[in-house]
Amino acid sequence: MNLRDLRYLVALAEHKHFGRAAEACFVSQPTLSTQIKKIEDELGVTLVERTPRRVLLTEVGVEIAQRAREVLNEVEQIRNIARRTRDPESGTLRLGIFPTLAPYLLPHVVPRLRERFPKLELLLTEEKTEVLLRLLREGKLDAAIMALPLHEDSLHAEFLFEEPFVLAVPGQHALATRTQLKLDELGTLKLLLLEEGHCLRDQALEVCHSTGAAERSGFRATSLETLRQMVAANVGITLLPILAVRPPVACAPDVHLLGFSDHAPSRRIAMVWRKSTAMGAFLKRLGEVIKDLPSGLLDAQPGVCRKTPPARVTKHSA
User: Fold this and answer.
1) Per-residue pLDDT, 304
2) Residue 186 · residue 213 · CB < 8 Å
3) How confident is the model at residue 22 (pLDDT cuts 50, 70, 90)?
């Protein structure tokens, strides 16, 4: 049994199909099947239930596949130690980030990361929090940017910044004549929210519970941009994180934004990595760059959305 065989087993556990697992490992299906049988013969246990339609791992197969993931991850950590020793700021970094933050934060930080770490290859993965946590545990990500709190003893969370929310209402809404409101004024309102699985939904629900606000029934958005368009279409109102209304995000003239005159609701953002990683010191340096956001970007007041005036056409006489 060698590392290559362990990779075959992990691939089979993930794909639950010999053909797809072989394709992922860049080998033929008979080769992968033979090596899996070799592991079974060596260990004296059955790892895989082979059925006509799909592959199922036995109970012991699931446990051994998980151990194999851990072994492969430790081997990768050994390589990381050697690579970081040779050149601490080079190599590849696999960084995860959740969908309601990624498109709004990355334009502000990726250029700075490229400037600060010119030899670093940054591979970005955008997934919901639950998926990011699984990828971190499995060693498929080196770090992830997530919203706190997290309850994972195996992970270290490095706080980055606190991002306030603003209230987005249609241009013809009664609140559209104002620039601010108090947090407790949300108690009489019903908010459009994202579907299950988005951490922003949980954060907005916490605001609802603390203020007495309610979710508008009959609609749940699949993305933050869908929420914005529903507000623009006069369907309802919602909470938006402040980075989602800052340039380079395009101004939405049919959406009016209100800040909070007292304590603005917010979410706390952190960079998270496994405590066992060999990259901890480097990830701290990376986090310091991400923390250094442009001045005023996280101010709790959204500012005014101004339409760009149409270009004037000057008529010239012939």
Assistant:
1) 59
2) yes
3) very high
End-to-end CA distance of the chain: 87
| Residue of 256, 261, 252, 246 lying closest to 168 (CA atoms) | 256
Q: How many CB atoms lie within 10 A of CB 313?
A: 5
Structure confidence by residue, pLDDT tens digits, 108-139? 999 999 999 999 999 999 999 999 999 999 88
Interatomic CA distance for residues 289 and 272, integer angstroms = 15
Whole-angstrom distance, CA of residue 139 vs CA of residue 187: 43
**Residue type at 282 in one-letter notation:** F
User: What burial letters (b/e) apply to 261-287, b meaning 16+ CB within 10 Å?
Assistant: eeebbbbebbbbbbeebbbeebbeebb
CA atoms within 13 A on the CB side of 93: 29
Asked if 146 and 128 touch (Cβ cutoff 8 Å), the reply is no
